[in-house]
Amino acid sequence: RCHLFRCPLPSLERSELRARGRLWNGTFLEEFLDVENLELIVRAGVSVASPRGNVVIKDAEAQMSVSLHLDPGVAVTGVPWWVLPLAALLGLLLLALLVLGLWKLGFFRRVRAPAPAVPRFRAVRIPWEQR
After folding, report:
1. Beta strand pairing status for 37-45 and 61-69?
2. S-S: 61 plus which of 32, 45, 87, 100, CB 3.0-4.6 Å?
3. Which tens digits make up the pLDDT trace of 19-71?
4. How many domains are contained in the chain?
5. 120 lies in a domain?
6. What are the subcellular locations of this protein (predicted)?
7. Is residue 77 part of a domain?
8. What's the Rg (C-alpha) of the chain?
9. 44 in any annotated domain
């Protein structure tokens, strides 16, 4: 994939320009997994947009080739299928243990209302035969 970079240059006092770039291993392992050898061609060019047109640049374009030799054994594939159900079961087990511990500590008990302040009278029950 090609990317175009534009950089404004405030002055051209130096006679050489340098550009640096980095190639990440992960990019090639993800996008070019089935390729063993890859050649990148890097092209750079300098152009000046001047209203007067009095600036002339010699050798305004450069090209460089970068060869990559990828090792398919290094590529990391996706997560094995059994890891996802195992992680879900362990998560549910941890949740169940947490709920059980909170239940044993009384976290889910209702707060009971205090006894009413109205005095209670003790009633005496009279058997039916004595009435």
Report:
1. antiparallel
2. 45
3. 777 777 777 767 777 777 888 888 888 777 767 767 777 777 888 888 877 76
4. 1
5. no
6. Membrane
7. no
8. 40
9. yes
